[in-house]
Fold these 3 entries.
Entry 1:
Amino acid sequence: MVRPPDFEALYAADPDPWHVRDSWYERRKEAVVLALLARERYDHAWDAACGTGALALALSRRCGQVTASDSSPTAVALTAGLVQACPNVTSLVSALPAVPPLTALPDLVVLAEVLYYLPAQDRSQALEAVTAAARAEAEVVVVHWRHHPDDAHLSGADATEEADTLLQQAGWRQHSRHDDPDFVAASWVRP
């Protein structure tokens, strides 16, 4: 049985457990995610597993409003500290598949490095919740380390394929995709 990490304990022990600030992988992944986006500007983005907030900060430059949520209160506090000079970013504690209280329906939802940590039923419910909470013209982005973390339920490649299947069954179409040896990222829009 897979036991996902205790994210609160990880962030409490190390404010940057995945070295987001100084890892070339993380900086490159963020740049690719931003390049995949279909539009230059968005009204409201929801970063559904914000971690330390680096992506939420980057999104704040392209979005009128950003809701950054995470299951870890420490991660949310770290995000709040990082984006304190960004009045358009709100940080909230919320764990998928739940949807945090959103002030507006998002037209961009980002699921970064989170789906593979959820059990199958929660992954499906999370994608259903995301699509139900999103505007009709929204875009959904999924990005994962390609491989299979020891503490995850499936590989990032498999999590992305599963998301593709579920989103396409719900009427979304894949807009763009990036595959490389380190990570896989894709975005979907509604026709």
Entry 2:
Amino acid sequence: MLAVSIIDRPMGVGAAATPADEAALLDAIRREAPGSREALYHRYKRRVFALAVRIVGAMDAEEVTQEAFIRIFRGLGKFRGDSALGTWIYRLAVNAALSHRSRRRPDLPEASPESEAENLVAEPRPYEGGGDSVLRARLQKALWRLPMGYRTVIVLHDVEGLEHEEVASILGCHVGTSKSQLHKARAKLREILSAEGITAAVLERG
């Protein structure tokens, strides 16, 4: 059996900008400085799109990204900095993804784990298993086979590096619920990987 650690160094939502950067950008947006909204869009669009791919799949990710930024720009006037700007943006992006999923027509085909694995491995992330492209695809395929709720909490906590307080805020649940869901999600992921002949050592982080 192949043995692999499926959690590497998470990338948190604050990785792309410092609090000072975010404060300056927000100030510019509130002053309606030319190009300020475009700057926010270009700063976060790749991360929002990547998050959408991991929750709803590549087929719907562009539509979810557009919906997320509509919500972001509509809500900027009400943002008071109670959380980091990146966390707030992730909250709206996840809400857009979950809302989109709930509205999806039941007769539309779901993307296969194989096709989504190809999209997920296109951008390096912790669930990659080193440089082995075959193993990387198997890990991403296993992640996609998780129920959406489990996949969402694993993506937010283990892949994106959010703490449980942030995950709970984004998902609208208690911190204890976030921890419980993550425990169940990791167990299910281990089960899927074990059936594929992969022994997964999941980092129990928080």
Entry 3:
Amino acid sequence: MAIEANSPPDARGIFRTTQWSIVLNAGANDSLVAAAALEQLCQRYWYPLYACVRHSGYSHDDAADLTQSFFARVVQKKTFAGVEPGVARFRSFLLTALKHFMINEWQSANRLKRGGGRQILSLDEKADDLYRAEPSHNSTPDKLFEKRWALSVVETALAKLRIEFVVSEKPALFDVLKPTLSGEKLERGYAEIAAEFGLSESAIKVAVHRMRKRFGEILRAEVVETIRDPAEVDDEVRHLIRALSN
């Protein structure tokens, strides 16, 4: 993944809904606000947590039930109420909360069976397929969580970058040039791509440069909202890169 660890942070402040603000909303007294925030957390982090549980020795059914129960317990106990932003790196905070639940609460918790009770988010079928495709060399649950966490951050950044191309009415060009963001070689040369889109070859080269730069900015904006001190962003980006390579 071609990520520039020392890219300047995005100063435009486009993405104001941060991971920590979502956490605070998930602990809100307003049930509608809390439910919407929790759903956002589930959409982004359900699978990394599931993969961690599954790699701890649980079957697919038990891991899915446990992950659902974790989020259900978060709602019931208002786990995120009173949490202060920046108390830890968000990935560490979430993983620690899961482990605490597994060790101290899972044995006595009533599992949230699929089809019974309120489901937070149903990802069971996808989760099993994704897990079976995981490389076997992810030797520990924590390492697998870290990798899937990193992928979720990258995928979120890519989705936001694509939205910008949709706004500029160039989503097709984004899809063609997207492999360059991970350092892959394009199937076609710049000249051929330029001809297809009615652009000059130099314009394609500029587009690739801007895409890579903007991707780095968006990614850093995502990362900086998960850490205690913005000065730690370079270290966290490097950690993310290492996690992706594991």
